[in-house]
């Protein structure tokens, strides 16, 4: 690995146990050693920069060291004889006052961050006509010094460094802040090997009127993106991700990134995927680094979650497998990510046995069977692309969410059942289609939440060992994809769970014919009709992705063999969008685009600025209209009103449930009570009934 060299930045250092420098100690503007401000006694200067000075101090109340940042913008203010901070001129007083107010606001926000990957702000206060931020004193080594003698680091070590930093950065961004100065010198490694992000002297809140005044050119060559060189540059989470990816590039290649301004016209910097060690870090990691280091900010990952998903292995995926998997690099506006909801097929499996074993021996046996189950699940999903599945082990069994081909759930069920049978293990397996939320937990893994997962678990609970039961929602989707779907399932009937929710269930019997894959490419499909061109197919896939998420690509491919032209393709795809308003928007956009004079040109695949990501629009959508149903005593206005209320509680599946229950209900009262049984939470159930006009809820 090439020799590493790091240049000084001139910015403050915070909480470094060995950061003394002659320049810092001789700072004539610094408070003198021994000076007391409130209960803190100044020991020495840790670092200084354009916006202030950072000190090592001693908390005399708690008898512990702290780091204190003093607001002192050198361009507009200096130190007076009484050690107070004073503006240089009347003209500079206004700028100083504005900056002081922003500093206090930012202190307040930073003090609310509680994350092990971010330096902790303990308090802030005003004194000496300026303001001070008190932080935990983090003793350790900056990343570049810590790395000496450890290079090259392995993939596991890299992940242990990157994951907490990404989680901490996500916390900052969720609060509306940018760090704006991520570099090796601002990443400290504690004695236990965990990283902490320091120096928020350049942090700024985004989207606040007037904030542009302080979005100045804070840059560290090689680690600052091009937009930070300009006060009016469009800065966002993608800017911090560029800087962190620059640190990762330096870690995996041994070379400092080329300055971003020099990369705008012709990029001379070798890609990490070219010069990095794929055998050590994996192609996915290297390609993700290159993605976040794209000079054009519009082409970078928009959020931490998108970048995390691309460069770190999903929960349940072995590191070795991740190293050989291609990176999942979704384009802006077409990604699924942590913290967002989307529609997915969910398979939930568990082993026979009591959920609360009677004794230690039974508990040990159950644990052993579940360990075997986890191994079998890993093998069964090995053929599914790593970027289109998420797996999680829970106390109730194993959950796998599929965001690509929904039929992968059936294929997994068949493989898993056969493998378990060979081991003498008969499994419980349930499959559902519904909204899923991916939530990171403190351990750095991912949890699968949402009604889609909860219902898959409840469906599984109705199975006998060796059975595979599926929900009606999942059967409806498979029926839209294959005419032969009826041969795969047989009606199992309705079951009511412990939450008083009724489930329409089907037993999966499976046939080799029904499970066979029939991939159809866009070019092959285009030969069916003159107006069904590859550009039409690509455009339809992009539009559908906005409404249902990453599953759109597979659904388009599976729909192509059934259509004879462009209009039929659009109509069948629209039927897969649960919300009528979104369905109408899809049809309008799809048909309008191809009624333009130049219909032969390929549509622009770049999302318009501000376009919502599919994960955002795949979250629960309000139902604004209802499909025709046969309920005799229920008017259209009542169906529409009840559908909207239900959608607020259970999301996109409200439309499907409304159509089914309205066909059976005799009046509005019975319809509302039937729909209420589909809501898990008793409180939400009561709330739905009150909103629907049934005073007194279920007990009325």
Provide an overview of this structure.
- With 700 residues, the protein is of the alpha+beta class.
- The protein has five domains: 22-136, Phosphorylase Kinase, domain 1 (2-Layer Sandwich), CATH 3.30.200; 141-324, Orthogonal Bundle (Transferase(Phosphotransferase), domain 1), CATH 1.10.510; 341-515, Alpha-Beta Plaits; 522-597; 636-699, no CATH class.
- β7 (121-127) and β8 form a beta hairpin.
For the biggest sheet, the summary is: 8 strands, mixed
Count, helices: 25
Q: By helix and strand content, what is the structural category?
A: alpha+beta
CATH T-level topology of the largest domain:
Transferase(Phosphotransferase), domain 1
Query: Quick one: overall form?
Result: elongated
Annotation, overall tally of beta strands: 21
Number of domains in the coordinates? 5
Mean pLDDT: 76
Please give the radius of gyration in angstroms.
Answer: 29 Å
Corresponding CATH architecture of the largest domain: Orthogonal Bundle
Roughly what percent helix? Answer: 25-40%
β-strand amount: 15-25%
In whole angstroms, the N-to-C terminal distance is 74 Å
């Amino acid at each position: 690995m090439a020799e590493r060299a790091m240049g000084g930045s001139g910015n403050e250092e915070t909480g470094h146990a060995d950061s003394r420098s002659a320049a810092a100690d001789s700072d004539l503007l610094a408070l003198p050693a021994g000076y007391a401000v409130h209960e803190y006694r100044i020991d020495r200067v840790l670092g200084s920069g354009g916006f202030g000075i950072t000190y090592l101090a001693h908390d005399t109340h708690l008898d512990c060291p702290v780091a204190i940042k003093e607001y002192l913008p050198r361009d507009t203010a200096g130190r007076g004889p009484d050690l107070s901070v004073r503006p240089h001129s009347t003209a500079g007083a206004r700028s100083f006052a504005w900056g002081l107010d922003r500093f206090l606001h930012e202190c307040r926000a930073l003090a609310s961050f509680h994350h092990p990957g971010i330096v902790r702000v303990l308090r802030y206060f005003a004194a000496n006509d300026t303001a001070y931020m008190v932080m935990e004193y983090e003793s350790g080594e900056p990343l570049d010094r810590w790395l000496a003698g450890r290079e090259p680091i392995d993939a596991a070590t890299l992940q242990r460094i990157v994951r907490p930093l990404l989680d901490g950065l996500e916390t900052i961004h969720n609060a509306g802040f940018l760090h704006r100065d991520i570099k090796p010198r601002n990443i400290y490694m504690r004695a236990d090997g965990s990283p902490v992000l320091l120096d928020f002297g350049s942090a700024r809140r985004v989207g606040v009127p007037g904030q542009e005044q302080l979005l100045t050119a804070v840059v560290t060559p090689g680690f600052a993106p091009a937009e930070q060189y300009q006060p009016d540059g469009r800065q966002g989470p993608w800017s911090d991700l560029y800087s962190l990816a620059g640190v990762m590039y330096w870690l995996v290649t041994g070379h400092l990134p080329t300055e971003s301004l020099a990369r705008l016209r012709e990029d001379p910097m070798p890609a990490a995927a070219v010069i990095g060690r794929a055998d050590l870090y994996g192609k996915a990691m290297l390609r993700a680094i290159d993605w976040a280091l794209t000079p054009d900010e519009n082409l970078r990952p928009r959020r931490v979650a998108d970048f995390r998903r691309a460069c770190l292995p999903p929960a349940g995926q072995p590191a070795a497998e991740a190293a050989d998997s291609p990176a999942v690099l979704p384009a802006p506006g077409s990604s699924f990510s942590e913290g967002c909801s989307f529609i997915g097929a969910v398979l939930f499996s568990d082993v026979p046995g009591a959920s609360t074993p009677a004794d230690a021996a039974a508990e040990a046996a159950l644990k052993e069977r579940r360990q075997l189950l986890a191994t079998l699940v890993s093998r069964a999903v090995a053929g599914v692309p790593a970027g289109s599945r998420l797996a999680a082990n829970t106390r109730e069994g194993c959950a796998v969410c599929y965001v690509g081909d929904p039929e992968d759930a059936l294929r997994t069920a068949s493989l898993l059942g056969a493998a378990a049978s060979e081991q003498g293990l008969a499994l419980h397996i349930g499959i559902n289609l519904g909204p899923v939320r991916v939530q990171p937990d403190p351990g750095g893994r991912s949890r699968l939440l949402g009604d889609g997962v909860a219902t898959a678990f409840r469906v599984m609970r109705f199975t006998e060992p060796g059975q595979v039961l599926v929900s009606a929602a999942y059967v409806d989707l498979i029926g839209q994809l294959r005419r032969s779907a009826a041969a795969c399932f047989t009606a199992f009937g309705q079951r009511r769970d412990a939450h008083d929710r009724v489930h329409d269930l089907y037993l999966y019997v499976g046939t080799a014919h029904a499970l066979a894959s029939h991939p159809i490419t866009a070019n092959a499909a285009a030969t069916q009709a003159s107006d069904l061109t590859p550009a039409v197919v690509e455009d339809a896939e992009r539009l559908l992705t906005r409404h249902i998420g990453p599953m759109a690509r597979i659904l388009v491919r599976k729909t192509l063999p059934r259509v004879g032209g462009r209009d039929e393709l659009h109509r069948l795809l629209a039927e897969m969008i649960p919300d009528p308003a979104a369905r109408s928007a899809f049809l309008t956009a799809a048909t309008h685009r191809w009624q333009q004079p130049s219909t032969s040109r390929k549509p622009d695949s770049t999302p318009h600025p501000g376009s919502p990501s599919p994960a955002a629009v795949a979250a629960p959508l309000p139902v604004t209209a209802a499909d025709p149903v046969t309920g005799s005593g229920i008017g259209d206005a009542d169906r529409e009103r009840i559908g909207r209320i239900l959608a607020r509680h259970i999301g996109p599946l409200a439309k499907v449930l409304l159509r089914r229950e309205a066909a059976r209900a005799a009046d509005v009262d019975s319809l509302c009570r039937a729909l209420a049984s589909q809501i898990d939470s008793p409180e939400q159930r009561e709330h739905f009934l009150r909103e629907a006009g049934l005073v007194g809820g279920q007990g009325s």
